Amino acid sequence: MQLLDITTAFLPFGTVNTYYQTTLTATDGTPPYRWSYSSGSLPAGLSLSESGLISGTPINAGTAAFTVQVTDQAGNSASKGLSIYIATTSTGTIPITPIFTSPQGIGNEFWVDIQVGNTDSPVSNLFGVSFKLNYDTTLLDVVTPYNTNVTPGDMLGSDVVFIHDVNETTGQVSIGMSRKAGQGGISGYGNAAKIRFRVNPNAVGSSTGTFSITNVTAINSSYGSITLAPQSAVIHIIQRLATPVLTSPGNDALANQVDLDYEWTAVTNAGYYQFELDNNPDFSSPEIATTTTATKYNPSSLYGPLASSLPDGRYFWRVKACGDGSMDSNWSAARCVRVTTVVLNPQFPATITEGSEFVVDVRVGSETRLAHVYPVNDLFAVSFSLFYDRTDILNVTTPTSAAVEARDFFGTNTVLFWNVVEDNGDGRGRVDIAISKKAGNPGATGYGSLVKVKFASVGTATGVKFQTSDVGHLISAYNPLGEQIDIAGWTNTMDIQPKPEVMQVWPGDTNNDGSVNEQDIFPIAIYWNAVGSPRPAASMIWTGQPMPFPWTPIASTYADSNGDGVVNVSDIMAVGINWGATHTVSSGHSFAPLLSNENIDHAKYLEAYRAMYEMLEKQGVNIAGAPELKKALAAVIQTGAIKQEVEAKPAESILLQNYPNPFNPECWIPFELSEKANVVIRIYNISGQLVKTIDLGELPAGAYTTQSRAAYWNGRNEEGEEIASGVYFYQMQIGNKVMTRRAVVLK
């Protein structure tokens, strides 16, 4: 709940022997409210009711200061100091009174009218009057020049003798005026003179000052004396909000109205801003009149797909600051903006990678933007600058003489000039372009591609801007008659992506550990008869061969040594041919795990081992690595045969360390079961969040340590997304028993 607050800022002045009435106001808290005053006193003759009504007939002149208090139904209370000024009046005489609007804000200008008479006490046959208007120089200044800001009113007519003097030191405006000889006097009441004041910028808010009239002399047309009763009045000064400063677009700027942001500076203590846009500089009938709490306004409600935009043309806009407890600011100085729906739009491919060349297509008009068609009409010639960021990684292709080409919007009868400026002096480059149809040809209407510019990238970046206009480099466009056409610039941003990682296969290094040796037997056996995409331009020559179509799992791609698309007995030949060869393996390009003899269930792959051994026996006579391969195959065949005959039952159920570790992106999680059990493996990140669940179901007792039997994890979470580098924990649940180990992902 908001705190109880008294919202009455000041009280109107009264006059002696004249009935007075005003009501105090408050906000928030819990109504109803009860009012009283806790100190000071009201002017004699006035009283304050519990409902907040101050009323009565004052009997004495002067200022009465007092503190009022309001109490709500919940017992909360608030206090505020106020005052009432009671002016004097002369019974039976005619008043001469300063009339103005109060309160006024600091820095504000306003008129003070000097009124002679009123409806109850009109003047008769007034021919001339002189007086002094006194004011507080700490609060107020007379606006200069004086001859246009101290002027006659309309009461004595327009043909008058008028003399004035302003004394800024004493704070007096002396005025003498009369009708001319032969003219009659004026009866009734009205404004004899007008003085324009400005509240001093150094004045303090929530202060009061007094206007008083002295030294009054008045005559009738017979030069007899008329008695006027000088009146005084109190002016209240409150804080005026500062005037917003318009920042963008610049005055008389040309901009595309669909995406045009009107911007201004923030004003301290402003609660909101009033925004007006009109095609008339006097703002007599605004096209847009709205409020916003931001310091930016985009009239998207007018320009959206379901609404029509304003017609292209010249508009004027202004802003003022508003807020509770302060006087609204003055309207800002108006700015003109030329808005258009026709733009030069730099377009480029959706995906750009480092090291590539690409084309920026500068298009004029638009065929689909925001569900509207915005064509250009009768365009004959246009010149503009195409700006681009990040000259450290972007450049126009060389030779620059071939980097810019005319497109089809103007057809073939065109004249094209351009100049490449690699350093614009602000970290950007630009291409200055001028294109025109040849003399005698008609202008072009519609939308389409105007020119294309070729660029090359040598690095990566995000948010790179391409822009078709800027301060000092505006777009110039003309029809065949030489008449200007309004075309606005446009800005688009791109991201330049890193080169995609391309897998490389070295024929024979089937485990991609950088060396061809007996360990390369095992991936062939593990992925025996696996089928995938053939490797482009495959051979068994020892070189890194690009493979843009990796298999699943990735490690199986390397097992296809000869690149024919199937893992079979022929792949052992590449191992033998390149026996002992080595290459450098980058951690960022290593896809396959390193396999060792100890990790493999050789009994499962006896058929593959025997087929490879037989192949080497028959065709390996001239292969350098055949003897070593045959020896290794014989050993694993013997091991597998023995294991096949004798399956040892583990003494206890245990969870073993995953391999490889660290890994990227896949690994195997080995374990042993001493008895039949339901096996579930859960993987968590370092924050304890579940990443992946591998439910293996019910398994018989035995060792699950080889790649063919261990739990396989492809390094992805439940949503199929690759996990990030870091520490992970995996748990195996066998019945009620839970075991945990740590794994590391290193990319």
Automatic annotation (TrEMBL):
Domain named FlgD/Vpr Ig-like: residues: 673-733
Any one GO MF annotation of this record: calcium ion binding
Cohesin domain boundaries: 112-216
One Pfam entry name: Cohesin
GO annotation terms (biological process): polysaccharide catabolic process
SUPFAM superfamilies per the UniProt record, alphabetical: Cadherin-like, Carbohydrate-binding domain, Type I dockerin domain
GO cellular component, one term: membrane
InterPro entries according to UniProt: Cadherin-like_sf, CBM2/CBM3_carb-bd_dom_sf, Cohesin_dom, Dockerin_1_rpt, Dockerin_dom_sf, EF_Hand_1_Ca_BS, FlgD/Vpr_Ig-like, Ig-like_fold
The protein's name: FlgD Ig-like domain-containing protein
Lineage, highest ranks first: Bacteria, Candidatus Desantisiibacteriota
